[in-house]
Amino acid sequence: MINIKENEKLSIMNHSCAHLLAQAIKHLYPEAKFWVGPVIAEGFYYDVDLGNDVIREEDLPKLEKEMKKISKDGKRIIREEITKKEALERFKEDPYKIDLINRMNEEDTVISCYTQGDFTDLCRGPHLDTVKKIKYFKLLKVSGAYFKGDSKNKMLQRIYGICFESEEDLQKHLEELEEAKQRDHRKLGKDLKLFMTHDLVGKGMPLWLPNGAMIRYHLEKYIKDKEISLGYQHVYTPSLGSVDLYKTSGHWDHYKEDMFPKMQMDDEEFVLRPMNCPHHMLVFKNELHSYRELPIRIGELAHDFRYEASGAVCGLERVRCMCQNDAHIFCSLDQVGEEFANVVKLILDVYKDFGFQDYSFRLSLRGREKEKYFDDDEMWEKAENMLREVLTNLGLDFYEAKDEAAFYGPKLDVQVKSAIGHDVTLSTCQLDFLLPERFDLTFINEKGQKERPVVIHRAILGTIDRFTAFLLEETKGLLPTWLSPVQVKVIPVSSEHQGDYAKEITEYLKENKIRVELDIRNEKLGYRLREAQTQKIPYTVVLGDKEKENHTVSYRLHGQKDTTTVTKIEFLKLLENEIKSFIN
């Protein structure tokens, strides 16, 4: 899906369309006051205060009609530069524009506004030269948005839209939006009964339903088995930690705002842990280690808690309670290159298993605001150069991004583009010289002396939550057979005549560890077949008199109408081979 913000021509067109929307709102709602109307990747929006009025979804066609009327009128869009004093006078009736103006530097800022007919808006631009060129647009939805994004401020209305150069481009984009809507993991999660949310539990805290829990179980088993085969040792550590633990690690100073509030119990203070590294540091420190034991790889599928803003939480993609596929590798300095390379190879191996292809490598570095990071220039230079060298030696194409590092060190982030256009970090691998220092970690080197290890933090699936969201959108909910909550649906043509045989086949598959459901409801065969398709079940077995008489099964793959008839032993072998081809 096209990124409007990154396309200069479409960006200008959508910016101009945002002003056209604002003018139409002003015509229909004369008391309206406006905050901001920026271009975003998906098009544009405008935040507006309508006082006691409300714009609903059903009002959008009325707004579009007024926008088209203004466009046909063909007024020119005229730019004007004014002083701060003039701007304050011109927009004195609009407190939102006054707020913007007052935050501008009078000496250094050029204040510009754009006028089209009876409407003037404060804006940097640029814009089209006439509203006549704004023809092919669509208003998409209405939502709420706090003024300045602060929940303590007034709730404004946010109207979203999109604008293109031609009707053909607009319709193509709307079709892509509909496709994205069908792929949205939140819709799939509801339709396939994978997870739910409830206000009584809290925002950003999904409840995994039986079907979703089955997916999660097999994802966790998949990655855990893979890691154990590579020498990882898995542990279990508490989801709580003392405040002192995070003061020692440095997270309290650098990450406190993203943690849940501390809890006072007797003479101790605790927090829900936002990450697992402090616990793993102490697991390593529990014993004296020799260089011969290194590298030591400690893994955990651990629950972490981060206080995401309520407006940022999104299904399973961004949550407040998550399960991380986390691990920490403790190694000597001369082992860093090989261990980091092994992590990258594991990431690539996993992506190959799942068929992921649209991803890129980002080297995330420290930014200019040094107070956000541990203050040790020498450590940062050493760590960043080391990662560059490893990535270059691996022959990976990567790009660098300032101000994306962890507070303790640089990292490699694997950025994936989801099927609905979201750019998310899936896997990550971080280099850390700081936490071994803060926890005074050591091992005995070849000379019999204490030496400080280096720690590599890594998450291959990232969080199980986000990985599941991404996978659902990639597959449109049609998961590979090995991962599908239900692998086979057994449907007799008639429950009365083939019901017993259907139960026999169902039990046979269950005994051989196939996840199977039997549908013997008193419903028409076509209805039951359509429902199996809707549930995204990979295999549907249809049993009639012929199958019962010959002791065979007729199966069809999801999305296909043709059936294949085989013995039950052949069908089981087919399923087992398909499953083994992936998980082995």
Number of strands: 28
The neighbouring-strand order within the major sheet is 11-15-16-23-20-19-17-18
What kind of oligomer do you see?
single chain
- CA radius of gyration: 29 Å
Largest sheet: 8 strands, mixed
Helix content: 25-40%
- Fraction of residues in β-strands: 25-35%
* SSE class: alpha+beta
Low-confidence sequence ranges? none
What value does the average pLDDT take? Answer: 90
General form: flat
Cα separation of the termini: 35 Å
Summed up, the helix count is 18
Quick structural gist:
The protein is α+β, with helices and mostly antiparallel strands and 584 residues long. The chain has 18 helices and 28 strands.
Q: Which terms summarize this structure?
A:
584 residues, alpha+beta, 8-stranded mixed beta sheet, 18 helices, 37% helix
Please render the helix and strand layout as text.
Blueprint: H1 8-28, E1 33-34, E2 39-40, E3 43-49, H2 60-73, E4 78-82, H3 84-90, H4 95-102, E5 111-116, E6 119-122, E7 136-146, E8 155-164, H5 167-183, H6 185-191, E9 195-196, E10 207-208, H7 210-229, E11 232-234, E12 240-242, H8 243-249, H9 251-255, E13 263-265, E14 268-272, H10 277-285, E15 296-305, E16 321-331, H11 336-354, E17 359-365, H12 377-393, E18 398-402, E19 411-417, E20 423-432, H13 434-438, E21 443-444, E22 450-451, E23 454-463, H14 464-475, E24 488-492, H15 495-511, E25 516-518, H16 525-534, E26 539-543, H17 545-550, E27 552-557, E28 564-567, H18 568-583
Parallel strand pairs: 11-15, 17-18, 24-25, 24-26
Antiparallel strand pairs: 1-3, 2-3, 3-8, 4-5, 5-6, 7-8, 9-10, 12-14, 13-14, 15-16, 16-23, 17-19, 19-20, 20-23, 21-22, 26-27, 27-28
